[in-house]
Amino acid sequence: MENLGYPSIKSIYKHLHQHPEISWQENNTTDYIERLLEKTSFRLQRFVDCPGLVAELGQGKPCVALSADMDALWQEVDGEFRANHSCGHDAHMSIVLHALFALEEKQAEWKGTLRVIFQPAEETIEGALAMVEKGIVDDVDYFFGLHLRPIQELRSGEFAPAIQHGAVQFLEGRIEGEDAHGARPHLNKNAIELGAEMVQLLNNIHMDPSVPHSAKMTSFHSGGKSTNIIPGRATFSIDVRAQTNEVMDDLVTKIKSASHALSNLHGISIEVDKKAQVPAAVISEEAADYLEQGILKVMGKGALKPAIQTTGGDDFHFYTIQKPELKASMLAVGCDLKPGLHHPHMTFDQSVMTDASRVLVETVLGVLGNR
Fold first, then answer.
1. 87 among the known binding-site residues?
2. Interacting residues of 103 by C-beta distance below 8 A, sequence separation 6+
3. Cα(255)–Cα(273) distance, integer angstroms
4. 1 pLDDT exceeds 60?
5. What's the pTM value of the predicted model, to 2 decimals?
6. Is 343 annotated to bind ligand?
7. pLDDT category of residue 221 using cuts at 50, 70 and 90
8. Does the annotation flag 213 for ligand binding?
9. What positions does the entry give for Mn(2+) binding (predicted)?
10. What single DSSP character describes residue 193?
């Protein structure tokens, strides 16, 4: 497609990878995508109150949407905290843009509406809900997302037509007490010791072992520079995951009960509140079938693998929770990704991006071209 005036998928990826932006700050990324799409026939819509972009081509029914996340993570890389694309969103945007270019060239082969959503703030679990509130998917019939998968799940060149993400909740906790002199531990409750007890209580919560789940403390802040003060206050975070929404509800209930029990035992205020959540995936078999046929047509039977089950989460699934009539599924892209998602030095086989783009093209043509 470079011969048609479009940049190569690798050049798009290189630019996006070198210019990461964190959630709700993807303004330069939006500008870059808009500049690329101004050369196409797509109708473009930007938002007044946030980054992100919607590109649309065609008209009428059915309406098929593709989604690509835009944001990077904020993490420590080689001793420096900075924005970093270690979740593959730079690849997702590149793959979807390349598919968009191809579908414009093949417009004579399909009828209906193609809508492409470049979504901000997936990492903060806020972007999909913002798009829903703006009505972007109100008239969408089929919705397809995608995500690079770790080498432990899929090898390079393998694809799956669905990702059964689990439910995720981020909890924030507070221990509200008073400081005491280091020589007088009987005059207060040591917030650090209470945090250690909370970790033990989390480890002692038992759920159905046949349903993957976990609850772990991921941050704890207490005390200061004076080492002769017993801190009475602390804040902490808990990452909670479960493969089903039902187990998630039970797990969070038990965590809050544990915090209340600890609070009552020591006579000190310990509160745990929900910060954000992602529901478990609700997958449309019909949408997954279209992805499966796209995989088979582009890559052949040997590349097709069963749906991926993972306790990782994605805010893509808010679309189907908020709009149950949506027929949606996510393409799982095998690319020998290692050491793992969110690792500061994550790498993957970039040559797979072209194949992933072709799979999305054939999937859309399967819906809009009645193949």
1. yes
2. 57, 110, 114, 361, 364, 365
3. 10
4. no
5. 0.86
6. no
7. very high
8. no
9. 87, 89, 123, 147, 342
10. H
